[in-house]
Design brief:
Layout: H1 3-17, H2 25-28, H3 30-33, H4 59-62, H5 65-77, H6 81-85, H7 90-96, H8 99-109, E1 115-131, E2 136-152, E3 155-168, E4 171-174
Antiparallel strand pairs: 1-2, 2-3, 3-4
Length: 179
């Protein structure tokens, strides 16, 4: 396969898999090319969160964040975007500018139903977490390590991503922003 075709195939997979990550991998490319140090710009950088002890997982009160993530990805895979929409945080929904825009873009991102399965490997509950890209701080956050089994043509791959869900009024909601 020519190198340009391989590069385009890899890029399309990154775009598809960004459906299931807190932030786009494209947004993190800037860390590979820029030097570390003070940020320049008009705003201040969000303060780092230190000495944060994880919460105990109590599925009887807060539900199961792993089940929520697996359901979210299953609904996306099955084309049930209206149901998946209800599993998004309010600020994630706002970033999509409506249910219809969410459904259209999700359908365009995975035309051949390439997501074959999802398995949450690890769940860690944090009392507080700051998304450094949006500079938003959330309380009661589930940090998940998730394996996504995907198909690329006739080949299957396992892709691991870190995903964050937020407890919103007693239910776990996904932080899936429009990229």
């Amino acid at each position: 396969m020519p190198p340009i075709v391989k590069m385009l195939a890899a890029r399309s997979w990154e775009t598809f898999l960004n459906v299931f990550t807190t932030r786009s991998t494209i947004e993190f490319d800037r860390f590979r090319t820029s030097a570390l140090g003070p940020q320049t710009g008009s705003g201040e950088q969000a303060p780092p969160i230190t000495n944060v002890a994880p919460l105990e997982l109590d599925t009887s009160i807060h539900g199961d964040p792993a089940a929520t993530e697996e359901a979210f990805s299953k609904h996306i895979s099955d084309g049930r975007f209206d149901v998946a929409w209800d599993l998004l945080t309010p600020d994630s929904q706002e970033s999509w500018h409506g249910r219809e825009a969410f459904a259209e873009e999700m359908a365009a991102r995975q035309p051949n139903k390439n997501l074959l399965g999802t398995r949450v490997r690890q769940v860690r509950l944090l009392p507080i977490w700051t998304d450094h890209e949006s500079r938003k701080t959330y309380h009661e956050v589930a940090e998940l390590v998730v394996d996504y089994r995907v198909r690329q043509r006739q080949r299957e791959m396992l892709v691991t991503r870190d995903v964050h869900l937020v407890n919103v009024a007693g239910s776990w909601k996904s932080l899936c922003y429009r990229t």
